[in-house]
Amino acid sequence: MEQPNEQDIRDTFAHLMLQQYGVDFVDDLFSADDDIAVHAAEEFSDIFFHQGDIYPHSATSVPHLVGALGLVGPGARAELIHLLAGVATASNVSVGEARLITEATRRVFERLSALEAYLRDEDDRVRLAALMSLTDLARINAPQMQFSRGRPPFVGAYPESFEPEAYRQQLRDLIGGMRDDFDSAWRVNCEAALAYLAFEAPDASRAEQPHPFWAMLERH
């Protein structure tokens, strides 16, 4: 699957920034200063979705977001991984635009293997972003998943070759095989991921608790 090159990514992002904010802050997003890059990534997220809204460019720019992961610093990389997961599961669009959600979801699901690579990133923020995002995406198509407002458009919107249960098992095997590769905090979060994939509550008796952001995976 062909990925856009760096210049194409920069040009696309600059166009979206100018369109939305009237200012180009691409250099901030790709800055070597982590604080500057993270702030730019947080602002950039509003261009793709805000409070559940996604836009026509949300789907078409998914390859550019994936391509940017290898070009930005670790803080911005973690933010963009969360952004990709958000784009894949956004569900609050105008009537008649649900197709935007399903197209964005499918494009992200086509690139899950690219996100899996970041489960071994040196930066713990990036690893956690990948772990949480992949766990969330693997869960949404499981029969046990319950949604309070009916079946969201993103459920089932994946490539024809994608088998939800097979992927959940693949992800369980991947996480289970690497939970001891880093520090104890990483092991705890891997164990939490495995519990969520099995639709079980993480072990509350443990002295070390999962990262508090795991609570957001309990959607409904």
What does this structure look like?
The radius of gyration is 17 Å and the shape is globular. It has one domain. By secondary structure, the chain is mainly α. The model has no long low-confidence stretch (mean pLDDT 87). The protein has helices at residues 6-21, 26-29, 34-48, 56-60, 62-68, 74-89, 98-109, 112-116, 124-139, 164-176, 184-197, and strands spanning 49-50, 53-54.
Features:
2 strands; two-stranded antiparallel sheet; mainly alpha; globular; 11 helices; about 0% strand
Q: Biggest sheet: strands side by side, in what order? A: 1-2
How many structural domains can be distinguished in the coordinates? 1
Distance between the termini: 34 Å
Low-confidence stretches: none
Assign an overall shape. Answer: globular
Question: Helices, strands, pairings?
Answer:
Blueprint: H1 6-21, H2 26-29, H3 34-48, E1 49-50, E2 53-54, H4 56-60, H5 62-68, H6 74-89, H7 98-109, H8 112-116, H9 124-139, H10 164-176, H11 184-197
Antiparallel strand pairs: 1-2
Helix pairs in contact: 1-5, 3-6, 5-6, 6-7, 6-9, 9-10, 9-11, 10-11
